[in-house]
Amino acid sequence: MRCPRHDVVDVGTRGPxxxxxxxxxxxxxxxxxxxxxxxxxxxxxISELALPCCHNAGALAVKCIPRRTLAGFVGEALADVxxxxxxxxxxxxxxxxxQALPVDLQLRAGVRVLxxxxxxxxxxxxxxxxxxxxxxxxxxxxQVGTFLAASQDEVVVVLIKADWEHRADFEPLEEDLSVCxxxxxxxxxxxxxxxxxxxxxxxxxxxxxxSLRDLVATGQRALVLVQAPPEVELxxxxxxxxxxxxxxxxxxxxxVGDMIVVLSEWQAAGLLSPKxxxxxxxxxxxxxxxxxLASAAQEAFCDFxxxxxxxxxxxxxxxxxxxxxWIVGKNWEKx
Length: 335
Prior knowledge:
Layout: H1 38-43, E1 51-54, E2 62-64, H2 67-74, H3 76-79, H4 82-96, H5 103-108, E3 113-121, E4 124-129, E5 131-136, H6 137-150, E6 156-162, H7 181-194, H8 212-217, E7 222-226, E8 238-239, E9 245-247, H9 256-268, E10 279-284, H10 290-305, E11 313-316, H11 321-329
Parallel strand pairs: 1-3, 1-11, 3-6, 6-7, 7-8, 9-10, 10-11
Antiparallel strand pairs: 2-5, 3-4, 4-5
Organism: Polarella glacialis (Dinoflagellate)
GO molecular function, one term: phosphoric diester hydrolase activity
Protein name: Phosphatidylinositol-specific phospholipase C X domain-containing protein
């Protein structure tokens, strides 16, 4: 089964949130932050907005299945047989592919948080999701930079984590983690591509707490959080930590029902309310076959939130244009 590419223009009335979407016809989705009321831009931080996020943002196509990953399913001997990977690729694709649109079109459709999982393949950083995806991290970051250069009032949050099947790529090569070569190369790549949109010094007083207007005024329009060991010295990007990122993801969340249980627990604990300086992400993404489960997950999420407020991030697989517009529209509602 192939998920259709979503039309980023036609939001229509069909989809996961029928009859509920705030159309805001005069608000262009590629520039919705710049269209926010001035009191919202001047008073709310990026951590206090309803933010659409793409889960495994660059996972659009499979390049290859790493031998170590394949060996975990078929054994060491069969992992070396080329036809085994060929036969496994369609199965891997159903589990690995989480998005239909490339990064630049995700941003133009309204997404403002990009969740990248990475690994090293042939000495290059690739987007990965168990498998190696057919997209270099460099290419993905260039698409972010191109979008920001053309969109002067928009801010994008970039989350970079080692993919679980590729964590060995980021193990320290020497005792001093601060000079570990792979982390240095990763940071150099981020600064090389997005340096025009990063502060000269990454300010640990928390850029996620600055107002949207202040971020734009100071040129800090790319907020990059990297899940690196705390000993690794980062400059111009931020360490991802429990202080600045909290996610509703749980390994045992497998079904829409499981997801709603977690969201209900978050609601009861007050975690659906924003926290200054901490990006809170509701995980509206399910493992297994993202293409098949995405629509039901989004519909259940819309039903759960209903007409209530929303001022946190929402992590989505295959987001429909209507769901994106509905989430963005929450930023125009009174609290």
